[in-house]
Design brief:
Layout (H helix, E strand, L loop, with lengths): L8 H10 L24 E11 L10 H18 L3 E11 L5 H17 L4 E8 L5 E11 L14 E5 L4 H10 L3 H4 L4 H12 L8 H7 L2 E5 L3 H12 L1 E6 L7 H9 L3 H7 L5 E6 L4 H10 L4 E9 L4 E4 L17
Parallel strand pairs: 2-3, 7-10
Antiparallel strand pairs: 1-4, 2-4, 5-8, 5-9, 6-8, 7-9
Amino acid sequence: MGMANEVSGEERLIARYFRPLAKHPAALGLLDDAAALEPPAGCDLVLKTDGLIGGVHFFDGDPADAVAKKALRVNLSDLAAKGARPLGFLLALALPRQIGPAWLEPFAHGLGEDAELFSFPLLGGDTDCTPGPLTISIAAIGAVPHGRMVRRSGAKPGDRVVVTGTIGDAALGVLLRRDPTRADRWELNHARQDYLKSPYLLPRPRNALIEVLRRYATAAIDVSDGLVGDLAKLCRASGVTADIDICSVPLSDAARAACRKEASLVETVLTGGDDYEVVATMPADAVDAFGRLAKVAGVEATEIGSVTAGEATARFVDERGKVLDFARPSFSHF
């Protein structure tokens, strides 16, 4: 018969790998059932949850520290698009039995590195054993000044559409990982191959732009399921139409080189997802100021289209003026 004060395996796992990360006072050292977080004065809380499933959101064999960072960064990207400063996160892990210290130690290390880098502390969570794939769920907590969250529903006719960074790199990188022979067909050197493969596993959330987005954006959404699908969601929420010039959509040199060799990749670029950039709408007279301030923060921003009254959709137009029709406009699990 076990003693009443015997420490469980779950408690030992938490104490070894995650309690050292729980430095914020609200986490209570992970010794309680919940955290106690005081919201910043004059702020609304912004709540978001997003998860990763092994074999769906990362490849088997991907480094555990990078998997941890992706789990945090996809949630940070959502907070960034809302103009929200990260306050902390809760972590729920469902671990297959074969996962042990060789995976958990670098996972915890990567989690701790990004928690420090983005000032995004671990506040609590849960661990379970699963017969299914490894599953990592993050519940993210952020804050915005009262009433200032940037929603999907604020776009207005006359606004311009702006997107950060470049689009399509991660989707092309996934194709390369699934079929390495594509690199020869696309005539990509090793540097360009590595460039395309990197953002799928290590997104670059645009948290440096949260104040600029709050100041200028009428609506915004992070690009996780593809530019076409995510902009369409924004348009539906706002009841407007966006007309996008596909020639203006910013591509990296590597993505542009691939598309020159295989023209059909344009659809992958625009719909593939995992960009974790921000697409936002704003008044025409705000675009230049937004771009300048974004550049100061180390982020390129590109105007790609305009907003009109209409059908609550996003229309992507090629160089001949033809509206493109996509076989699968957006990534979907269902």
